[in-house]
């Protein structure tokens, strides 16, 4: 084909390009920046077929690399640097012939615009220089830019912001008034308005750093940690249930509480990440570091009937890898699950290199539908830890009062006999369709269904024996011979996981159909043993998860003495000395010391029962081998893969172990180009509504370029340099002049900076779901400040859980809480992932199925109905009205108070007029109809209103509800 | 017009509706706002561009055959072998082992992987030959009513999926991905096509009571959720208990007039904010409160069946009187179609019969049979079938071999992804059609000569319909090129059909 780019086309293109505003004019085209100007075009239009996915490189052409783009192809060169006329690429993208033009119509991409073609041409003319994608180059501290109005700047952030504004010909807004500023800062930092006292003390503080000190006070409130944690919990998809199919409850809230605590004590963010990714791999990790690894376990899990473990191992790992990719690296590596990434230099092999870090934890791929699929850890609060160590010290003191020789003498004297047992054997495992069937159906080994398949079993009476069944919905028989010297009637103990049946000499003496752990219960069973050998058979029936059995042939007390004395005689070690003393104190004669000992033990037991468990990660001793999964199919393994990070992003240094710990260390190393940037961008997003990179979940080629890269890099470098302090980062942002601007939009700015990306004004955006509900409770005075603990169940319309979940689910029935816990902050709502709290979801909270680092913000009629009619909101306006009604103030003063409680400011005169006239109307209505007044007040648990006050309270209630439904109440501004 | 000038004019209008209008008094402003429905609020919002409710520009991509969809989802996986896929030759093979040549290494769930045998369980139910204006079709005796409308149905016997467990399979069918996180089909449609009636939700979900009392498989909001699309596109569940739409009803003691006054006061305060801040979102908020007020009237009107004639209940069955039954939901679907609701999804559960098909299949079928037929007849009668697409089916089929004990009277069936039956009607699909065929075991998809086909998700396989193909075909009927309805998220243009899906033109008129 003939070259068909006539000079005519070129000159038009150049003209078109010159017309693009670029801040400067010259005869030659302005310098083209590959990352800013070219990469987005290539990525959008070309990479799908000519990008990093080597297998798809159509016609052998790759445009993501200089070498690929400039190599000789069959028809010539796509790009000849400096020679646009010889570059086939320009010819093809500007061709008017549809068959020739790139990208082809069936690619789904539209042709390049004239401006884009001109830009490409200018780039080739200037030498077609390639540059690494901006976010893959580690950030360097940028020079502070020169600005005209340097007086405006309060800290380095402002210089970067102002430079952009001046470039766009915009001026910052004046500072917001102090009321607004106080409210804005408190809402950003803590998710709550300031209390009246906090606001007053700030307003009265006339010192020059009053605002800074106010900000510091806000960050010292525990509400600060709660607010910061909320965003993190979205990102890691925290939930209180497994999230799939049965969606049973899971025990992991100590992780949530740890995140709150970490932000409150300003745990450096690098440690924060390290512990979550790999706390278990640290040398002798603390409980806190182990609880943090709940991060790894946060993925959705299932044990749907019929599910195949290998398939779920892959699914679970995909979930972990892709979440980590988004949360920490801001990359959409999920694309590389099935093929090389089409836009970013992440190969399918790289994906499985990361996968290999996450597929070798000890947890089973199927969760057993239980709350605590192992491994897990006891996670006491700091008060609980303190009390426990106090109790341990008290025990030590008591032990000191006992002479261990005397104790041993007493124990030996009281060592009664136990029945001897021998010849323990185990039957084959019997599978069943259900737990019921496994319990009911006789299997081989049951008396009357004997089998020849008994196998010898090493079984010790009085000890827990785990994993006898090893399957779900299955059973096994354990048989032993018990020898008695005379006819003996005895209470024996049987403990099992889960259900159990016991036969003595062929007669069923015990059946207990329960679901439990072997250490959770002990059944007392009366058995009469004949002289000589007796046949004892126990059937262990396992529902799901671990299983086990323990049989005791004596009473508990005697067994304890036997164990202690025998163990001591075998090995008189220091530990066994202590055991002698403990047993003596426990079961020996009553003395003041033994009573004290038992009391401490009892308290210990109660306390231990209160300490919650939390899911954690633990690495297998030998990692599972990893293979590329073809097309992401778990049953189609390809080549084996070793653990590695995507080469485009760097590599682990030899000093780092090649496991999750090494991965974590690589994440927080200075050479990592993404982690700090990705996080500071999200904190910026929390404060201004939009990140410096708008696509906070994607810093790759398809993501948006940073609107102000020097600002982003400054924040990232500074963050790491200053010890990864999240509090300092927040402080710097909210005390900047940029943040302090008034948030009004002028017509000019509405056109030049419609989304406030340049920060030409203060932030204004709708509050998040949690903040809106919390604010209403706060205004009413109902909000509880209890931190952490089990999720609470708020008001919720009937039938939401029952109507959609499996009746067998542990979260099938919704029983709301009836105590003060319903007034807790929204972040503590019990989060059932397949049916999250409707108020939250209506206001765009994610469902926590997948990682979300940027919530959508919508504006819908269902939201209006929620804040108008949902019980918690109505109750809040009712209780707030009650407070106003009983105050001995004028109506005017009450109206002021209503505005202050809801909007943290006084009403404008015209607003006062509107609402006073509304109040008068409501009064007329409800004084004329006390019944209606009672109707409207009958909402929520909080103490009801006294009879004569009803019409007055109802009238104020509608005023309060109106204020809570204003855009101002619902927004940060 | 100069954009800055335009924005300045906006501000001026805002002044009018903001501070200065206070001179008129609140009541007058209220009246002003309610004139022509949205009045000032709508005007303000529209000054910033086209309404979101119009869907995406350029959509539909071409003239649609269907304007709305009713999806009757049979959750749990109904047995195609006992309803639609007649296999008389199996009677001679009762309790014989499924040949390996038929199973061909198909993976089985861990519920039957421990079975030592895979004994063939022929359907115990009789099949009748029904006239469909073509070659006729065999329909189970369990569907006496549906068999009367087969002239309207396009029955696909060769649907297939890769998923073998409920959660992944259902999520796959509803969202195009086995892993959670993607928008549901209805959300995609709301996003792409927008609303036809702003006074009702665009995408409505209805849950049906199950007579057998064994609803087993859960259905969860993610199945009608929006994934990464903004939440305004999510399905709204119309409930049969409490408020039909959450928080729709005003509290007792707050009458409609008082609510109106309250909303007017809120609007006045919001206008004040608008004039102070100039944020277009405030204008949008004012409008949403007006829409909420209208929903409070239009939803109860929709749910009120008192004006339906007796003939309606004769058609749908007397169960239609009882809120929440599948029959009542089908009737509501017809009423919604009349009112311009775009996508209606009715869930019916209880089809996951691993045992006792001899007992539970009749109950399950009876729950839906008459109402399905009634819906088709009713839509046909009113002419709405022409541009309404009705789809019936589950997430997968069931195995020909018995799970658990097998007798002539009773048997169980495990999940089977390799072939199952779905039917469609109206909206430009061929009426009276039977598409595709399975082997004598209802196990594999076969070609005309009976040779086994291995369908591919990547290429269109004639005679087989992958669930992405079904999704592509449904979108096609609504005038949407399924490759064009995309949303850019995490660096990728996502779509309902992921990277596959082909419109099955053979099914279309």
Descriptive key words:
heterodimer; A: alpha+beta; 6 domains; 7-stranded antiparallel β-sheet; 4-stranded antiparallel β-sheet; 19 strands; disordered N terminus; B: 509 residues; alpha/beta; Alkaline Phosphatase, subunit A; 9-stranded mixed β-sheet; 13 helices; globular
What is the succession of H and E elements of chain B? HHHEHHEEEHHEEHHHHEHEEEEEEEEHEE
- Whole-number total of structural domains of chain A: 6
Rg over alpha carbons of chain A: 35 Å
- The first-to-last residue Cα distance of chain A is 61 Å
Number of strands of chain B: 17
Coarse structural class of chain B: alpha/beta
- Kindly report the average pLDDT value of chain B: 88
Report the uncertain regions of chain B.
Answer: 11-52
| Most strands sheet of chain A | 7 strands, antiparallel
Number of helices of chain A: 37
The first-to-last residue Cα distance of chain B is 47 Å
Annotated CATH topology of the largest domain in chain B: Alkaline Phosphatase, subunit A
Task: Note down, in words, how this protein is organized.
The complex is a heterodimer of chains A (973) and B (509). In chain A, 42% of the residues lie in helices and 9% in strands. With 973 residues, chain A is of the alpha+beta class. Chain A has 6 domains: 125 residues, no CATH class; 115 residues, no CATH class; 231 residues, no CATH class; 81 residues, no CATH class; 134 residues, Jelly Rolls, CATH 2.60.120.1560; 102 residues, no CATH class. In chain A, the strands form 6 sheets. In chain A, strands 4, 5, 6, 8, 10, 11 and 13 form a 7-stranded antiparallel sheet that branches. Chain B is of the alpha/beta class. The interface between A and B is large, with 111 and 96 residues.
